[in-house]
Amino acid sequence: MNQHDRDFDKGAPAVLEYLDGEYSVLTPGSYVLCAVSGIKIPLESLRYWSVDLQEPYAGPQAAHQRMRERGLTPR
Asked: What is the distance between the alpha carbons of residues 13 and 30, in angstroms, rounded to a whole number?
């Protein structure tokens, strides 16, 4: 997230492009929704996402669950 990306509507969800080690803000907002749980994740707290699936996750457990659902990890 760039410094100029901080001036946005605090109540709106952001639309992001998930990249390797960073993300790009396509539509400004203050949070994204976890793809597994639906929990609001403030952008400053976002640490887990999938570049391949273009999805954010609330934590490592949610990310692992999604990878298992998609058959991307051994059972």
From this structure: 6
Residue that is written with structure tokens 């080690």 in the block: 21
Which stretches of the chain drop beneath a pLDDT of 50? 1, 3-5, 7-8
Domain ranges of the chain: 3-69
Which residues, in sequence order, are bridge partners of residue 35?
none
Distance CA 72, CA 28 (A): 31
Give strand ranges (E) for the chain. Answer: 15-19, 22-27, 31-33, 40-42, 48-50, 55-57
* DSSP β-ladder status, 40-42 and 55-57: unpaired
